[in-house]
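Dear Dr. H.,

I hope your travels went smoothly. While you were away I took the liberty of generating a structure for the chain from your last submission, since the lab meeting agenda had it listed for discussion. I wanted you to have the full record in hand beforehand rather than looking at slides cold. The sequence, exactly as received, is reproduced here:
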Amino acid sequence: MIGMIPELNGKSGGTCDFTIEVTGTGEVTAAPNRTLITLGAVTEGKEVLPAQNENAEKMNAVIDALVGLGIPRENIRTESFSIEPQYDYVDGRQVFRGYKVTHLLEVALSGVDGAGTVIDTATAHGANTVTDITFLSSEAAAFAAQALQAAVRSAQTKAAGIAAALGVSLSAVPCKVEEISPDNGPILFKAAAMSATTPIAPGQLTFKAAVRAWYLFA
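The corresponding predicted structure, in token form, is as follows:
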């Protein structure tokens, strides 16, 4: 896009008058090296205390089993805990059914190979819900920076191509650069029914960046 910016920093007659405006995108892929698994137990009962005690027994067994796999106890934390009354609707009336107790754990793994074993072990010891698995990288900031650098180079290449087509000279450094939001989302595995052996494929993480830049031309 070729445009005009009549003012720079609020001053008329600034140095960013005639510009070529471009956008650039960058993308870096990397293998994940961390895994977060959210799993737990849901129990129901007419009375809150029995339901809560049943849930506690299941979760204690799950935690002990996960620690038995070699997962440090500090890598297992309660993600959420709730006790909720449950109701049925009969002939338009709300009828109390009992209580639902939900206890979810977040289990952090230092790699990606043990996710299936963690799920199978937890379900074998009382877990009955697995809400999600997220694959991450401990070097995410570095990969994001690489993607941003690639986006800036992409914008520079586009601007140079436009300038060459127009037969004009381009400034070596843009007069303005702003980062814009790329179409980027987390890598997430949504767990459903689990088999006796659960294969989990982490794949690759994708880090995206995008910029808009303005180059002077003459």
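Two observations you may find useful: Residues 1-14, 185-196 have pLDDT under 50 and may be disordered. DSSP finds three helices and eleven strands in the chain.

With kind regards,
E. W.
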